[in-house]
Specification:
This protein is of the alpha/beta class and 203 residues long. It contains six helices and seven strands; from the N terminus they run βαβαβαβαβαββα. It is globular and about 50 Å long. Bound molecules: 5-O-phosphono-beta-D-ribofuranosylamine.
Length: 203
């Protein structure tokens, strides 16, 4: 049985948005049952917002924050309200560099996913590709996981592996991981849209 209903998603990012581009292009090229109802950023001048506007999508920029790694509760509440007003059923963190707290977590229980550039639980936090290189592992990759109050610690949904090659620099390894990310995130979002991965209940 086919359904004409699309999963409404909001994509949050802080930077250049290569994962968002890969996701959006995949949705369009493969007619995935997914609709991007909002693209939001913690930086008004983030490239991801520029690209979303070029695609003709609704965008939201948070006002400047005093903090680097989190948002003030009132800013995060405004962000959560914007996402709710847009009608999002799933929130995707694609390079969103803030730790998500109660306002978003409570508004979207078991409805926020994140893409991280390592095979979690290894190498949580920043510059995971550098951590992998420093640790001397032969293999790393990327993970899509549910977001909870822990740092990169929510339940794992899916992972993709890449080799670490001799002579790799942080840049070459990061590029290889990002190529894998650009495949993994759209495939997970498609599986959620098709109901193969269940979303949390409405609150
Ligand atoms: C990605 O490597 C993702 O894993 C991490 O932040 C990076 C975002 O890159 N969370 P981009 O903005 O999608 O290019």
């Amino acid at each position: 049985m086919t359904s004409s209903k699309s999963l409404k998603i909001a994509v949050l990012g802080s930077g250049r948005g290569s994962n968002f581009i890969a996701l959006y292009e995949n949705i369009v090229a493969n007619s995935l049952p997914v609709e991007v109802c909002l693209v939001a950023s913690d930086f008004a001048d983030a490239k991801i917002l520029e690209i979303a506007a070029e695609y003709g999508l609704l965008t939201f920029a948070c006002p400047p924050s005093r903090f680097k790694t989190k948002l003030e509760p009132e800013i995060e509440t405004a962000l959560a309200e914007a996402i709710q007003s847009a009608g999002a059923e799933l929130v995707i963190l694609a390079g969103f560099m803030r730790v998500v707290k109660a306002p978003l977590l409570n508004a979207f229980p078991q409805r926020i996913i994140n893409i991280h550039p390592s095979l979690l639980p290894d190498f949580k936090g920043l510059e995971a590709w550098k951590q992998a290189l420093d640790a001397g592992v032969k293999e790393t990759g990327c993970t899509v996981h549910w977001v909870d109050s822990s740092l990169d610690g929510g339940a794992i949904i899916s992972q993709s592996k890449v080799p670490v090659l001799s002579g790799d620099s942080p840049t070459s390894l990061h590029l290889r991981i990002q190529k894998a990310e650009h495949q993994l995130l759209p495939s997970v979002v498609n599986e959620i849209a098709l109901g193969k991965i269940p979303l949390g209940l409405e609150n």
